Amino acid sequence: MNNETSLRYHQKRVAVTKTFTFDAAHKLERYEGKCKNLHGHTYQLHITISGFLNDIGMAVDFGEIKDIFQSVIKSRLDHQYLNDVLPSMNTTAENMIVWIWKQIEEEMIKRDLTEEGHRLETLTLYETPTSSATLHREWMIEE
């Protein structure tokens, strides 16, 4: 195993997913239902990033995904009142997931991950165990 690429089995793009949680409170504006009142959730966020394998056979380091989540999402949203800390928007899962996407993508650019061929592929944000919003890379491409 002297060849420097010997730990890489293939040259395919592979996506890896890591799951995180954070707790936050919010209320929905102009909504007629119980969520118009202040309430909280334990959000669950699934982050999927793809890349080509490096010389040790790894597409994306799970530790790097964790560091990105902690530095740009958890540090800003965990145990916060979302209506105060997010931009002017209704704090629906559908709005939040686009904001989260932009934060993660900006951080990946800062870390030169996109330059290395890594892509944010999918985010899924669970507001409850049975209710989620999903966003795919192709949906974020500007038309």
From TrEMBL:
Catalytic activity: 7,8-dihydroneopterin 3'-triphosphate + H2O = 6-carboxy-5,6,7,8-tetrahydropterin + triphosphate + acetaldehyde + 2 H(+)
Family of this protein: Belongs to the PTPS family. QueD subfamily.
Stated name of the protein: 6-carboxy-5,6,7,8-tetrahydropterin synthase
Domain of life: Bacteria
GO MF assignments: 6-carboxytetrahydropterin synthase activity
Cofactors named for this entry: Zn(2+)
Pathway: Purine metabolism; 7-cyano-7-deazaguanine biosynthesis
Gene: queD
Cofactor note: Binds 1 zinc ion per subunit.
Gene3D superfamilies according to UniProt: 6-pyruvoyl tetrahydropterin synthase/QueD
EC number, as in UniProt: 4.-.-.-
One Pfam short name: PTPS
Presence of the UniProt keyword Cytoplasm in the record: no
Record-linked InterPro entries: 6-PTP_synth/QueD (IPR007115), 6-PTP_synth/QueD_sf (IPR038418)
Species of origin: Terrilactibacillus laevilacticus
Keyword Metal-binding: yes
Keywords: Lyase, Metal-binding, Queuosine biosynthesis, Zinc
